[in-house]
Design goal:
eight-stranded antiparallel sheet, Jelly Rolls, five-stranded antiparallel sheet, alpha+beta, 17% helix
Length: 183
């Protein structure tokens, strides 16, 4: 099993820009952690949940096809559902937006069933500094490709983070696939 599968051009640049504009046109919420708690020392970002934006229904359809193919090629996990709404996150330099080391499997009802994490780069990498998505699948830290529209897919148990944004703003789309517990 590979710790990371990349899909270049999972979304076209115009689709990324349209998704950002859609989220900017609606009120975004402060990013929380499990059970709606907020801990800004761990995570500083604003979120839009795509289930709240019917104009973004196409995103889930596209991601479902891409994730199914990536799972066949790279992971072979037993996947059954997409139980959670995709989220678009904005990490802004004005508050050093970041998300410290974490895994996406947790004790919550849905978080316990997460199998794969998908993060799509929506921003042009020239639009911000910092904000690097990093994975730590073992004792080494791996930086993820920042090309606009690239989808990074990795097992939800892998530690990852977004380093603080120091200039501009980083936008990303995140979703999870679900299935029976790992054994």
């Amino acid at each position: 099993m590979t710790p990371l599968h990349l899909i270049p051009a999972a979304l076209r640049p115009d689709e990324c820009a349209a998704l950002i504009a859609l989220c900017q046109s609606h009120a975004m919420k402060d990013a929380g952690l499990v059970r709606q708690t907020t801990a800004h020392q761990i995570r500083r970002a604003e979120l839009s949940w795509l289930d709240d934006l019917p104009e973004a229904a196409w995103v889930m359809e596209r991601m479902m096809r891409l994730v199914a193919e990536a799972n066949r090629q790279a992971f072979g996990f037993d996947l059954t559902d997409f139980l959670e709404s995709p989220q678009v996150a904005r990490y802004g330099a004005e508050r050093e937006g970041h998300f410290d080391w974490h895994s996406d499997i947790g004790s919550g009802q849905l978080a316990a069933k997460r199998k794969l994490t998908v993060v799509v780069q929506l921003s042009d990498p020239a639009a911000y500094e910092g904000g690097q998505l990093e994975l730590r699948p073992d004792s080494n830290i791996r930086q993820v490709e920042r090309a606009i529209g690239t989808a990074a897919i990795f097992p939800a148990f892998i530690l990852h983070r977004v380093t603080p944004v120091t200039a501009g703003e980083r936008w990303s789309l995140t979703l999870w696939t679900h299935g029976p517990a790992f054994r």
